[in-house]
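Researcher: Quick test of sequence recovery. Tokens follow.
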């Protein structure tokens, strides 16, 4: 129906172990389906073997990136790649925000369950200790002003020292809070996909450097959002 109405629909596509080696088929599938945007996200559940391995995640995303940029006019957006390119200043489109894992603000994706329970992100629903209130017994304003929400916001934005000294932190922003939930001592941990994220981000930076006719300016932290200032024409024109 959305297709019939020509509505720009988006899809979240979960990458599982079975997806590995099927990148081209998956890419062709979405070309035929014509979504506006696809968000590839790794299957993940705390300390279980259903989680996609970091190596497999890196392999899938790097292959998918190469397929995506091999098209002169990629037929759909891939959110992670588009956001990385945008942060690096190489995405020629109007865009006013980055959400989710490259935003560095995991506490702002408020999720309300059918029983009224409120979480700061829907992916945190699986752990009741992440609950910040219930909309049936208190107002939304009260919930976001509550001590538990403020505390959660602070924990969410507390990064481990490896992230703070990481060369790609300004892009990665420490990853997904759900995949780096603090341990019992409330010590921040690395995203389960840390190594994979490093590989993927470096691969994109390498692609920019090698495919550009212009010299990529040194990457540096420019402002609160760690965005590069755009000082020259963009190369990735879609
Ligand atoms: S916790 Fe994960 S899924 Fe939720 S907003 Fe943060 S990055 Fe996105
Ligand atoms: S790549 Fe790893 S160390 Fe670097 S910011 Fe991301 S999660 Fe942290």
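Model:
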């Amino acid at each position: 129906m959305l297709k019939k109405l020509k509505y720009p629909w988006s899809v979240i596509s979960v990458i599982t172990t079975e997806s590995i080696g099927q990148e081209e088929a998956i890419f062709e599938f979405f070309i035929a389906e014509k979504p506006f945007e696809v968000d590839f996200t790794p299957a993940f559940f705390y300390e279980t073997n259903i989680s996609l391995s970091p190596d497999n995640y890196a392999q899938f995303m790097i292959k998918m990136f190469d397929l995506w940029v091999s098209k002169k006019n990629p037929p759909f957006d891939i959110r992670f790649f588009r956001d990385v390119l945008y942060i690096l200043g190489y995405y020629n489109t109007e865009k006013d925000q980055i959400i989710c894992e490259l935003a560095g603000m995991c506490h702002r994706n408020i999720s309300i369950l059918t029983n009224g329970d409120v979480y700061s992100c829907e992916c945190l629903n699986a752990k009741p200790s992440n609950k910040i209130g219930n909309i049936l017994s208190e107002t939304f304003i009260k919930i976001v002003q509550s001590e538990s929400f403020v505390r959660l916001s602070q924990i969410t934005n507390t990064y481990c020292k490896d992230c703070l000294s990481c060369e790609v932190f300004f892009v990665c922003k420490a990853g997904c809070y759900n995949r780096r939930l603090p341990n019992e001592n409330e010590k921040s941990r690395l995203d389960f996909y840390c190594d994979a994220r490093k590989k993927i981000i470096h691969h994109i930076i390498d692609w920019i450097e090698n495919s550009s006719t212009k010299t990529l300016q040194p990457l540096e932290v420019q402002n609160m959002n760690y965005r590069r200032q755009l000082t020259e024409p963009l190369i990735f024109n879609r």
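Residues 213-238 have pLDDT under 50 and may be disordered.
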